[in-house]
UniProtKB/TrEMBL annotation:
<dbReference type="Pfam" id="PF00856">
    <property type="entry name" value="SET"/>
</dbReference>
<keyword id="KW-0863">Zinc-finger</keyword>
<feature type="domain" description="MYND-type">
    <location>
        <begin position="27"/>
        <end position="63"/>
    </location>
</feature>
<dbReference type="InterPro" id="IPR046341">
    <property type="entry name" value="SET_dom_sf"/>
</dbReference>
<protein>
    <submittedName>
        <fullName>Uncharacterized protein</fullName>
    </submittedName>
</protein>
<dbReference type="InterPro" id="IPR001214">
    <property type="entry name" value="SET_dom"/>
</dbReference>
<keyword id="KW-0479">Metal-binding</keyword>
<dbReference type="InterPro" id="IPR002893">
    <property type="entry name" value="Znf_MYND"/>
</dbReference>
<feature type="domain" description="SET">
    <location>
        <begin position="64"/>
        <end position="297"/>
    </location>
</feature>
<dbReference type="InterPro" id="IPR053010">
    <property type="entry name" value="SET_SmydA-8"/>
</dbReference>
<keyword id="KW-0862">Zinc</keyword>
<dbReference type="GO" id="GO:0008170">
    <property type="term" value="F:N-methyltransferase activity"/>
</dbReference>
<dbReference type="GO" id="GO:0008276">
    <property type="term" value="F:protein methyltransferase activity"/>
</dbReference>
<dbReference type="Pfam" id="PF01753">
    <property type="entry name" value="zf-MYND"/>
</dbReference>
<dbReference type="GO" id="GO:0008270">
    <property type="term" value="F:zinc ion binding"/>
</dbReference>
<dbReference type="GO" id="GO:0008757">
    <property type="term" value="F:S-adenosylmethionine-dependent methyltransferase activity"/>
</dbReference>
Length: 547
């Protein structure tokens, strides 16, 4: 069944309706069995319209603008029940369980911050895993697993240095399993999550065996193989990456947010606070009846990488609007320029699971491997330290030459163009010459436009791009002013435009939840705003005096 052919799905199914025998729930007023449900959220049932009307003044406070539906292909997921405004907060959620990333450098199991390098690694006196202070040994995060990890009396599993290791993958899995006795309602949530364990048993058998050895042999626990595989699958399919106060990446499982399905063109934006609280908001205006979606992969990687991540980790083939459009909605993010005819870009042709690329104008065909190899070659070139020259005086010329070269091979909204633009901005970061500032502003403008195409609406990425662009524009304006290279009326207009841009950045970032990375940046935007206002005031005053 396609994702948009849905069946209503109520989370409080109880018994058959007393009038028609269809499964439903208890009426929100009289509690008799009823199958009519609120069309807004689908969560409350009614025996008839009269009781629904009677309940509305009370229910409108809780009625969510989305409901849970399900389809055979896409499982359970959330769909808007009325129009959502861009920036509208849809829900907040709290993690059921939190733990380190699957692979991590030495991370403290108490506070989840990276452990600073020192001569000697501090180990938890209870379980011997690295920690950053003795206080963290008894922190609520680590306390429940410490005595279980301590069963590894020979310290086989605990990392003995701070080098990156995949041993940290075990921690979140163990913490989930321990919920069975510690927190039965959280455990029930984990057990209801999709896990694809049958497929995983085929594709990841060796890894699953190692996890089982760790839990049942090293820690002497007694979980069945099926249960372990289900939990491993639930974590891999549903955990989201969030940031700690010290900006370390960790993972968390959320009971409600995990119901958001995927699209490579998401319409919903997530922001998490350092205490793990997650806010979900509409990034763009969303009509009624639309699937609410986030992107499970980065939106800034080529189509083949997105497809591999989605099929290997989430076991589905993405058929979102971006993946189904051969030009990726006009940006040619993954396709090269046709080597034969100028102005055309190759488009992917899918045939029985294979991809080849073809020019819509001259029909030249290129193998998928060649298209990917061209991208890999460029990535290798970019990784070479001297690709854009040193930070000395000739950086600018090399950046300009490189941007020209990349546009010979790719569309100026291609993935490789984006990488070159980002590397160029980094390379030119200390060049305060007017020409470099103008180029940096142009690149930020192009990047901000590209990000808007990849992740439309009020997102943190957009807010950050506007802040960067605004900061460069202010430097450029100050340099132009110092060089007396200005026409005042236009200059003042440009400064007012800059103020508006920074106000948009401030507004966008302040939509993020309090305690998040986005919110932290608001203070930085405010500083730029007052600097710009002061500069505008002083220039305006000078213009008035010289009249
Ligand atoms: C985090 S869960 C989302 C909730 C899930 N639909 C459920 O029923 O529990 C991720 C899983 O949902 C399914 N899914 C998510 N987005 C999808 C999409 N666009 N098309 C098909 N399946 C999708 C896949 O099975 C994926 O592994």
């Amino acid at each position: 069944m396609p994702q948009n052919q849905v069946v209503n799905h109520s989370s409080n199914l109880k018994s058959a309706c007393s009038r028609c025998d269809i499964m439903g729930g208890a009426c929100g007023i009289c509690e008799v069995s009823a199958h009519l449900s609120c069309s807004g959220c689908g969560k409350v049932h009614y025996c008839g319209k009269e009781h629904q009307r009677q309940h509305w003044p009370q229910h409108r406070q809780q009625c969510q603008p989305f409901k849970l539906v399900s389809s055979a292909v896409a499982g359970s997921y959330l769909v808007s029940t009325r129009q959502l405004e861009a920036g509208q907060v849809l829900m907040e959620d709290t993690p059921l369980v939190v733990g380190p990333m699957a692979e991590s450098a030495g991370v403290c199991l108490g506070c989840h911050e990276l452990i600073p390098e020192s001569d000697e690694v501090l180990h938890c006196p209870g379980c011997h895993w690295p920690i950053c202070s003795l206080k963290c040994a008894t922190s609520p995060n680590h306390f429940p697993d410490c005595s279980v990890l301590a069963r590894d009396t020979n310290h086989i599993s605990a990392p003995n240095n701070l080098e990156p290791t995949r041993r940290y993958e075990y921690i979140l899995i163990l913490r989930c399993l321990l919920l069975r006795d510690r927190a039965p309602s959280a455990w029930k949530e984990v057990m209801s999550m999709s896990h694809h364990s049958e497929q995983r048993m085929v594709t990841q058998e060796e890894k699953l065996d190692l996890i089982q050895i760790f839990l049942n042999k090293v820690l002497k626990l007694d979980y069945s193989k099926d249960l372990i595989n289900q939990v491993v699958g639930a974590v891999a399919t549903n955990a989201l990456e969030i940031r700690t106060a010290g900006h370390n990446s960790i993972r968390a499982l959320y009971p409600k947010v995990r119901l958001l399905n995927h699209s490579c063109l998401p319409n919903v934006h997530l922001s998490s606070a350092t205490n793990g609280r997650m806010q979900v908001r509409a990034a763009v205006k969303v009509g009624a009846g639309k699937v609410l979606s986030i992107s499970y992969t980065s939106t800034t990687i080529p189509v083949w990488e997105r497809q591999i991540i989605l099929s290997d980790n989430y076991y589905f083939t993405c058929e979102c609007v971006r993946c189904s459009d051969q030009t990726e909605l006009g940006i040619h993010f993954s396709s090269p320029r046709c080597p034969e005819c100028t102005g055309s870009y190759l488009e992917p042709i899918r045939w029985l699971g294979n991809i080849s690329w073809s020019c819509p104008t001259c029909h030249l065909e290129m193998k998928d491997a060649m298209v990917r190899a061209q991208v890999s070659d460029w990535l290798v070139r970019l990784q070479m330290d001297d690709i854009l020259g040193g930070s000395g005086g000739n950086s600018y010329k090399r950046v300009v030459a490189l941007l020209h070269q990349v546009e010979m091979d790719f569309h100026p909204t291609h993935f490789i163009w984006m990488k070159v633009a980002q590397a160029s901005l980094y390379r030119l970061r200390d060049d305060k010459s007017l020409r470099a500032l103008k180029l940096r502003r142009r690149l930020w403008q192009q990047l901000a436009d590209l990000y808007e195409r990849l992740e439309p609406g009020h997102t943190r990425r957009r807010g950050m791009a506007l802040l960067e662009m605004g900061s460069v524009r202010l430097l450029e304006a100050k340099t132009e002013y110092a060089e007396e290279n200005i026409y005042f009326p236009m200059f003042l207009d440009a400064l007012r435009e800059l103020l508006e841009m920074l106000k948009t950045a401030e507004w966008t970032l302040s939509l993020d939840i309090s305690g998040s990375v986005g919110r932290e940046l608001v203070a930085k935007v405010d500083k730029k705003l007052s600097e710009t206002q002061q500069f505008l005031d002083s220039v305006t005053q000078q213009v008035t005096l010289t009249k």
